[in-house]
Amino acid sequence: MLVVGDVMLDRYWVGNASRVSQEAPVPVVDVTHVEDRPGGAANVALNVASLGARCTLVGIVGRDDAARVLRESLSAAGVTCDFIEAEDWPTTLKLRVVSQNQQLIRTDFEQPLSADYRAAVGEKARSHLAQATALVLQDYDKGVLLDPGALLGDAAAARVPVVVDPKNKPFRAYVGADLFKPNMNEFLAAVGGVDDDDQIIAKATELCVAHDFAALVLTRGAEGMTVVEKDGRHQHIPGRPADVYDVTGAGDTAAAALAISRSLGWEPGACAQIANVASGIAVGKAGTAAVTGPELAMALAASERGDRGILNREQLVDAVKQARAAGERVVFTNGCFDILHAGHVAYLEEARALGERLVVAVNDDDSAKRLKGPGRPVNPIDRRLRVLSGLSAVDWVTDFPEDTPIALLEMLQPDVLVKGGDYGPEGVVGTELVEGYGGDVRVLSLVDDCSTTAIVARIQDASSSG
Q: Is 382 a catalytic residue?
């Protein structure tokens, strides 16, 4: 992998803040240790090496201690550093003060970069392209990639795919990129407002055609990623359930994973699935951090399918269409799933065995209250969705505001509608609809003595008796 872009050092001052300054109403941090980590394009290179690929990094640094620290840490990780040293210009440094796992302040040390050094970046990058299987342009808009068009042209001539992580430049500056990876804010700044996923897909397709991107990989934070290809094919990859510790550098990790998988000839959707898992690991770490190959392998092994998770209706419709096109049998069930218990788990596992994909539709808070009465649901919808999405039997989870799932059934037309209970199929809401288009309706047995209502009642009885 060849990584070219804005190199910087992320420095952390870590300590305890147990008192307030007498000079101003601010905490006083007693710094106990200092951590230095590669940032920007350097973090992409570190992630590439940590994931198991060889990497050369081209960028500009000053003749200072920050540059020395970067060289030492990156070289120790196996990254080949081919830096241009600028005189009278400091290496970009971001200093964060952290206490009790909380970032209190960030200060940036940076200066405008003279144009004299930018030509050297292109020359160094060209000297490495012949050995590269992919190129990453990591643009933090600090001046190293003022005109990325020349590098994109060189890469095209060398038949090297290019992954671009943009910042503030117009998207036309990156014409010819193979995988173009903006975040949602960058995308909206380029295309204006969007009302729904259909508009996102339409505008992303227009960008791919206008700028000759093979695919646009839109990173959407907790919502995951949306991949749109130039020919209009698209796929939404849900965000993975994760305890978000720090989002710093997650985009760098995603860029590294995209480049490695694309260099292997993978399709854009498959590349994005790997990047989605890798960035999900990164947000669970403090500060700028690299994801290792074994970490990624374990996460992939724990989740055989990378496209599982929480989807909105539009995303779910697309996912079901793609599953059906692949010959997969889609099973659908619904309920409140307020307090998940053993009965639910057994029931969902039995439902999943009826097909290749299981969709679980969950009543939102208002509809659950209408169905179950005051005091319900005990758990709000976001928590119920997250818990269900973590079950291995469940592929996709969505919520619905109506009292019945009829609207969803009409949109999705699943192959099998499943409910649990002691009644016949004729008692299942949606039976007539599903059987009308040739689908199956199944009623599964429930585990004895497992009921959310009974669990709530026992808790209330215990509380009142105490």
A: no
